[in-house]
């Protein structure tokens, strides 16, 4: 039976120290037909491990109905990892975050009365136990202790990242895994439960994280469970491609320098949020786009990127020096370095590596003399770069004796089977000192401009020139056994790694387009005094329509207040489109009402539940009755420091000493009796000396995210006439939103009808449209067309679709929901898995505004 253990230096599998090089991939974000290609490319990059979450809600979409078949076949995915000798780190939750709807929790949990999440709350734990009872037996056969390759299982996920100290809850989950048979090491990241190895999640500042792990967790190896090589994107946000391949290379060397011996690339392959599975993180409009490409080493289409090539090269280097990295005796600061250079040396019996960092803004070129070894080394490091200087590491054998690299000041992909490659920036020099026996009996071929000399120590020192033309140093012994060193420049290495792909090889011709109006099934409707959120309605995602009637004594503009809304809503009044209510938490919109009876309706797409926040389980859609004749007060400006007359804006809060209050006044002269506060970044906010209204604060948000926002009911604190806000501004830099929505309970619109909308299988009245098609009226509309393919099952073809000209909605190919779309960026292209395509294919689109589909295009990449 295989075993996995650890000590303070590294993981130990079957008695061998192993550097864990793990690829984060999510089997639920690509079809099963692509798993083989994905895992083959993971292996090709030099990874020896795969990490994946397990989304509870994906396997139990309906309560008590489990699905582990087809694309959800976790067992087959784990077997495919085993076939490739890939270790596996499993992260089963029950909460996983992952920018996945509800952080992996089933939506139906939020329909349970008074449900609490991620805490020691018996009703919640009842369902967690059911989940573990179903899941863990499926995992057990794949543990390394049972001849599988699962080497670690995570307890929960990032539990203390938002300051939740529920020790009893974490211990319950830990014990639940153990008692069900999990006998491989348990791990956490920001979880800190006794009996589990603690990892960190980060991208930069490896030194600080290493220090935390060393100080807090004795006897454990250092690992980063989420090494953020890219980032997710949100609708309407910027393109998240700020982390370059060069930055990744430097960050990897920082990890090696600090003694990390387990790295999980999050994400190595991101994939796609098909259907409505994309989540929502803290912040007002942080809804995940359909693509989860993550600017990862493998794209959403499984294509290799420059980051992939960096990882592949560094992995090859790690494989060479693994004995040094996984069992160091010391990690010490380098001394006696020239100005502008800093470094640390990882020292072990197997050799040493000095990671030298150039902190200057210009290239550092130095000659370093080592009195102990009696040789001088050429050092060249790019600005803000790191160079690993390898010393006394085995590289091969000649004449039956070990060849060692006494010193190498170039980058390397390692030495294997007597062959190695070293590279540096074009035109630069480096030094290589070889320790070989019986130098005089060796035949050395060293083409110009390489130079070498025999040192008094008997070693060979080469001065290497890294030009654009690769060269080979060849050393042969008397038996003609050869030791080769390929000397080249970085550009050549990177060009050799490049994968050439053809963009837009083939464009599919779309047939005639047809349109159909949205018709809702009245049999799937519910009535209620106030609107029902998605969970209360009994629907996990998709679309809901809300309809009601109200009377007005006059014609004119009225302000409609949404006291609680968590998704953008299209607003229609008397069958006319009014606009999009796009504020969240609470919102308002101006209505041109008519005298007498008015009909109002909203169309709401569930854009994803929170996957990362202190307040999981928000009511999706609309959950409180909208109110007429309301008022919105923007509270950002007009604040005074107590005792001082000058006013300030909360966008840029002045520095103050001590806990001095900021004050703002407003007058409620219309008899409002209800008030909803929506804002960000404030704590201890008081209204009229009442108990502080706690909005989610910057201090409790994790620093990897923008400031979150919170919603607070302040109606019970509201006065007629004069009102005053007060808050402690100590440490506050600035916020971008703080509003109060005022309304009267008597003006709330009641008696609502809710219906499921945008249902693919609902009968439709299709009508052909021509190439002059345009729509003057904004209204939801369906479109369909067909296209033909001649793809074979073994074709390595990637297919994408552009939805130019459309607005916002959902689309399907051959009945498979490809996800949400919203033409506000940053996503412009959407993946169509080749596995769902046939010779004749149906494309169906639901567009919220009924915009023209005539610019839609499909092509291969």
UniProtKB/TrEMBL annotation:
Q: Which UniProt keywords apply?
A: Glycosidase, Hydrolase
Q: Which residues form the Glycoside hydrolase 35 catalytic domain?
A: 12-316
Q: Which InterPro entries does this UniProt record tie to the protein? A: BetaGal1-like_ABD1, BetaGal_gal-bd, Galactose-bd-like_sf, GH, Gly_Hdrlase_35_cat, Glycoside_Hdrlase_35
Q: Where is the Beta-galactosidase 1-like first all-beta domain?
A: 531-633
EC numbers on record: 3.2.1.23
Which intervals hold domain Beta-galactosidase galactose-binding?
780-840
Q: Which domain of life is it from?
A: Bacteria
Enzyme category, top tier:
hydrolase
Q: Which Gene3D superfamilies match?
A: Galactose-binding domain-like, Glycosidases
What Pfam families does its record include? BetaGal_ABD_1, BetaGal_gal-bd, Glyco_hydro_35
UniProt GO MF annotations: beta-galactosidase activity
Family the entry assigns: Belongs to the glycosyl hydrolase 35 family.
Q: What is this protein called?
A: Beta-galactosidase
Organism, scientific name: Neobacillus driksii
């Amino acid at each position: 039976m295989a075993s996995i253990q650890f000590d303070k230096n590294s993981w130990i599998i079957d008695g061998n120290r192993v550097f864990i090089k793990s690829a984060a991939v999510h089997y639920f974000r690509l079809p099963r037909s692509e798993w083989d290609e994905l895992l083959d490319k993971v292996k090709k990059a030099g990874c020896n491990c795969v990490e994946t979450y397990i989304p509870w809600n994906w396997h139990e979409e309906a309560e008590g109905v489990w699905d582990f078949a087809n694309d959800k076949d976790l067992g087959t995915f784990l077997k495919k990892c085993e076939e490739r000798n890939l270790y596996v780190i499993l992260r089963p939750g029950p909460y996983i975050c992952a920018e996945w709807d509800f952080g992996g929790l089933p939506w139906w949990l939020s329909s349970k009365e008074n449900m609490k999440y991620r805490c020691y709350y018996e009703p919640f734990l009842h369902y967690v136990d059911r989940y573990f009872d179903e899941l863990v037996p499926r995992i057990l056969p794949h543990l390394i202790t049972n001849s599988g390759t699962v080497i670690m299982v995570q307890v929960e996920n990032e539990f203390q990242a938002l300051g939740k100290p529920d020790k009893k809850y974490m211990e319950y989950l830990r014990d639940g895994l153990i008692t069900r048979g999990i006998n491989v090491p348990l791990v956490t990241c920001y979880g800190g439960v006794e009996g589990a190895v603690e990892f960190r999640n980060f991208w930069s500042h490896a030194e600080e994280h290493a220090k935390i792990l060393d100080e807090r967790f004795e006897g454990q190896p250092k690992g980063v469970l989420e090494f953020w090589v890219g980032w997710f994107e949100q609708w309407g946000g910027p393109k998240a491609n700020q982390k370059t391949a060069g930055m990744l290379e430097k960050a990897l060397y920082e990890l090696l320098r600090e003694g990390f011996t387990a790295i999980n690339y999050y994400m190595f392959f991101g994939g796609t949020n098909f259907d409505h599975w994309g989540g929502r993180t803290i912040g007002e409009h942080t809804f995940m786009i359909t693509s989860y490409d993550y600017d990862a080493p493998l794209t959403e289409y499984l294509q290799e990127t420059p980051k992939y090539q960096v990882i592949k090269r560094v992995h090859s280097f790690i494989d060479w020096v693994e004995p040094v990295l996984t069992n160091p005796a010391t990690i010490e600061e380098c001394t006696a370095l020239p100005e502008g250079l800093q470094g640390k040396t990882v020292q072990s019996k197997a050799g040493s590596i000095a990671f030298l960092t150039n902190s200057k803004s210009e290239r550092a070129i130095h000659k370093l003399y080592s009195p102990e070894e009696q040789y001088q080394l050429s050092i060249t490091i790019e600005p803000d770069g790191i160079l690993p200087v390898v010393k006394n590491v085995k590289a091969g054998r000649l004449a039956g004796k070990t060849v060692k690299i006494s010193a190498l000041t170039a980058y390397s992909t390692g030495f294997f089977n007597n062959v190695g490659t070293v590279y540096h920036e074009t035109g630069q020099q480096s030094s290589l000192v070889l320790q070989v026996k019986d130098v005089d009996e060796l035949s050395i071929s060293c083409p110009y401009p390489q130079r070498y000399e025999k040192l008094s120590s008997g070693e060979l020192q080469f001065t290497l020139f890294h030009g654009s033309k690769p060269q080979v140093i060849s050393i042969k012994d008397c038996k003609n056994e050869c030791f080769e060193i390929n000397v080249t420049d970085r550009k050549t290495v990177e060009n050799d790694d490049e994968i050439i792909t053809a963009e837009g090889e083939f464009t599919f011709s779309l047939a005639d387009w047809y349109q159909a109006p949205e018709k809702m099934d009245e049999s799937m409707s519910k009535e209620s005094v106030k609107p029902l959120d998605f969970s209360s309605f009994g629907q996990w995602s998709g679309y809901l329509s809300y309809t009601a009637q109200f009377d007005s004594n006059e014609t004119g503009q009225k302000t409609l207040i949404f006291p609680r809304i968590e998704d953008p809503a299209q607003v229609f009044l008397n069958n006319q489109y009014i606009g999009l209510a796009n504020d969240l938490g609470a919102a308002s919109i101006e209505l041109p009402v008519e005298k007498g009876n008015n009909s109002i309706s909203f169309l709401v797409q569930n854009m994803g539940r929170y996957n990362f926040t202190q307040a999981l389980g928000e009511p999706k859609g609309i959950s409180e009755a909208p109110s007429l004749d309301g008022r919105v007060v923007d509270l950002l400006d007009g604040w005074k420091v107590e005792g001082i007359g000058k006013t300030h804006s909360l966008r840029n809060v002045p520095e103050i000493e001590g806990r001095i209050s900021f004050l703002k006044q407003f007058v409620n002269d219309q008899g409002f009796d209800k008030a909803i506060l929506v804002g960000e970044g404030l704590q201890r906010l008081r209204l009229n000396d009442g108990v502080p209204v706690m909005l989610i604060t910057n201090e409790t948000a994790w620093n990897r995210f923008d400031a979150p926002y919170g919603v607070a009911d302040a109606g019970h604190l509201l006065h007629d006439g004069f009102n005053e806000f007060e808050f402690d501004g100590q440490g506050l830099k600035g916020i971008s939103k703080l509003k109060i929505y005022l309304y009267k309970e008597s003006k709330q619109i009641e008696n609502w009808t809710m219906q499921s909308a945008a249902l693919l299988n609902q009968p439709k009245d299709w009508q052909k449209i021509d190439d002059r098609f345009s729509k003057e009226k904004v209204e939801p509309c369906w479109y369909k067309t067909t296209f033909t393919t001649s793809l074979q099952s073994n074709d390595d073809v990637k297919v994408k679709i552009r939805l130019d000209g459309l607005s916002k909605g959902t689309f399907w190919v051959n009945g498979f929901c490809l996800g949400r779309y919203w033409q506000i960026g940053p996503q412009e292209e959407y993946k169509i898995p080749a596995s769902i395509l046939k010779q004749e294919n149906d494309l169906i689109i639901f567009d919220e505004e009924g915009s023209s589909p005539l610019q839609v295009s499909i092509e291969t990449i």
